[in-house]
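Each record in this resource describes a single protein on a pair of labelled lines. An example record follows, reproduced without changes.
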Amino acid sequence: QVQLVESGGGLVQAGDSLRLSCAASGRTFGSSALGWFRQAPGKEREFVATISWNGGVTLFADSVKGRFTISRDNAKNTVSLKMNTLKPEDTAVYYCAARRPYMIAPSTHNWEYDYWGQGTQVTVSS
Protein backbone atom coordinates (compact mmCIF):
# COMPACT_ATOMS: atom_id res chain seq x y z
CA GLN A 1 0.00 0.00 0.00
CA VAL A 2 1.33 3.38 -1.01
CA GLN A 3 1.75 5.79 1.85
CA LEU A 4 3.06 9.34 2.16
CA VAL A 5 3.81 10.63 5.63
CA GLU A 6 4.61 14.27 6.32
CA SER A 7 6.52 15.56 9.33
CA GLY A 8 8.12 18.74 10.58
CA GLY A 9 5.13 20.97 11.09
CA GLY A 10 4.63 23.06 14.20
CA LEU A 11 4.02 26.45 15.76
CA VAL A 12 6.55 29.15 14.91
CA GLN A 13 6.76 32.93 14.93
CA ALA A 14 6.73 35.15 11.88
CA GLY A 15 10.17 35.28 10.31
CA ASP A 16 11.14 31.81 11.49
CA SER A 17 11.98 28.80 9.32
CA LEU A 18 10.67 25.25 9.14
CA ARG A 19 11.55 22.19 7.11
CA LEU A 20 8.80 19.78 6.19
CA SER A 21 9.65 16.26 5.12
CA CYS A 22 7.62 13.61 3.39
CA ALA A 23 8.57 9.94 3.38
CA ALA A 24 7.07 7.58 0.86
CA SER A 25 6.57 3.87 1.28
CA GLY A 26 4.91 1.10 -0.65
CA ARG A 27 6.62 1.97 -3.89
CA THR A 28 9.43 4.16 -5.11
CA PHE A 29 8.67 7.58 -6.50
CA GLY A 30 11.88 8.07 -8.42
CA SER A 31 9.94 8.28 -11.68
CA SER A 32 7.24 10.62 -10.38
CA ALA A 33 6.98 14.34 -9.95
CA LEU A 34 6.23 15.37 -6.38
CA GLY A 35 4.52 18.37 -4.90
CA TRP A 36 3.44 20.27 -1.81
CA PHE A 37 0.01 21.81 -1.35
CA ARG A 38 -1.62 23.56 1.59
CA GLN A 39 -5.07 24.26 2.88
CA ALA A 40 -5.97 27.01 5.30
CA PRO A 41 -9.22 26.94 7.29
CA GLY A 42 -12.17 27.87 5.11
CA LYS A 43 -10.08 27.90 1.95
CA GLU A 44 -9.48 25.52 -0.90
CA ARG A 45 -6.33 23.47 -1.16
CA GLU A 46 -3.71 25.42 -3.06
CA PHE A 47 -0.47 24.66 -4.82
CA VAL A 48 2.78 25.51 -3.04
CA ALA A 49 5.69 23.82 -4.84
CA THR A 50 6.50 20.97 -7.18
CA ILE A 51 9.63 19.17 -8.36
CA SER A 52 10.32 16.99 -11.37
CA TRP A 53 11.38 13.37 -11.11
CA ASN A 54 15.09 14.18 -11.05
CA GLY A 55 14.93 17.52 -9.28
CA GLY A 56 15.87 19.41 -12.40
CA VAL A 57 12.74 21.52 -12.54
CA THR A 58 10.99 23.21 -9.64
CA LEU A 59 7.97 25.50 -9.62
CA PHE A 60 6.59 27.65 -6.83
CA ALA A 61 3.46 29.58 -6.09
CA ASP A 62 4.02 33.32 -6.35
CA SER A 63 3.18 33.69 -2.67
CA VAL A 64 6.16 31.56 -1.59
CA LYS A 65 8.65 32.23 -4.37
CA GLY A 66 12.01 33.25 -2.96
CA ARG A 67 11.13 32.01 0.53
CA PHE A 68 10.48 28.29 0.02
CA THR A 69 12.63 25.64 -1.61
CA ILE A 70 11.75 22.07 -2.55
CA SER A 71 14.16 19.17 -2.82
CA ARG A 72 14.03 15.41 -3.12
CA ASP A 73 16.20 12.41 -2.38
CA ASN A 74 15.21 9.54 -4.62
CA ALA A 75 17.53 7.14 -2.82
CA LYS A 76 15.61 7.76 0.39
CA ASN A 77 12.23 8.21 -1.29
CA THR A 78 11.71 11.57 0.39
CA VAL A 79 10.77 15.11 -0.54
CA SER A 80 11.34 18.20 1.58
CA LEU A 81 10.02 21.73 1.72
CA LYS A 82 12.26 24.32 3.38
CA MET A 83 10.25 27.34 4.41
CA ASN A 84 12.03 30.56 5.32
CA THR A 85 10.76 33.93 6.46
CA LEU A 86 7.41 32.46 7.40
CA LYS A 87 4.37 34.72 7.51
CA PRO A 88 1.05 34.33 9.35
CA GLU A 89 -0.63 33.78 5.98
CA ASP A 90 1.48 30.62 5.55
CA THR A 91 -0.58 29.02 8.30
CA ALA A 92 -2.22 25.90 6.87
CA VAL A 93 -2.18 22.14 6.76
CA TYR A 94 0.57 21.14 4.35
CA TYR A 95 0.23 18.05 2.19
CA CYS A 96 2.79 16.26 0.08
CA ALA A 97 1.63 14.53 -3.07
CA ALA A 98 2.99 12.26 -5.77
CA ARG A 99 2.04 11.74 -9.36
CA ARG A 100 1.66 8.25 -10.75
CA PRO A 101 4.71 6.40 -12.11
CA TYR A 102 6.40 7.94 -15.15
CA MET A 103 4.53 11.23 -14.74
CA ILE A 104 7.88 12.98 -14.48
CA ALA A 105 6.83 16.56 -15.17
CA PRO A 106 6.02 18.83 -12.24
CA SER A 107 2.44 20.01 -11.97
CA THR A 108 0.71 22.83 -10.18
CA HIS A 109 -2.70 21.11 -10.41
CA ASN A 110 -3.88 19.00 -7.48
CA TRP A 111 -5.98 16.76 -9.76
CA GLU A 112 -2.84 15.49 -11.43
CA TYR A 113 -1.58 13.90 -8.22
CA ASP A 114 -2.65 10.38 -7.32
CA TYR A 115 -1.12 9.92 -3.89
CA TRP A 116 -1.51 12.20 -0.87
CA GLY A 117 -0.22 12.35 2.67
CA GLN A 118 -2.39 13.04 5.69
CA GLY A 119 -1.01 16.53 6.16
CA THR A 120 1.00 18.37 8.80
CA GLN A 121 -0.08 21.57 10.52
CA VAL A 122 2.02 24.70 10.21
CA THR A 123 0.99 27.65 12.35
CA VAL A 124 2.78 30.98 12.13
CA SER A 125 2.06 33.52 14.83
CA SER A 126 2.51 37.25 14.31
Remarks:
- The chain has no helices and eleven strands.
- The longest strand covers residues 18-25.
- The mean pLDDT is 96.
- The two ends are 40 Å apart (CA to CA).
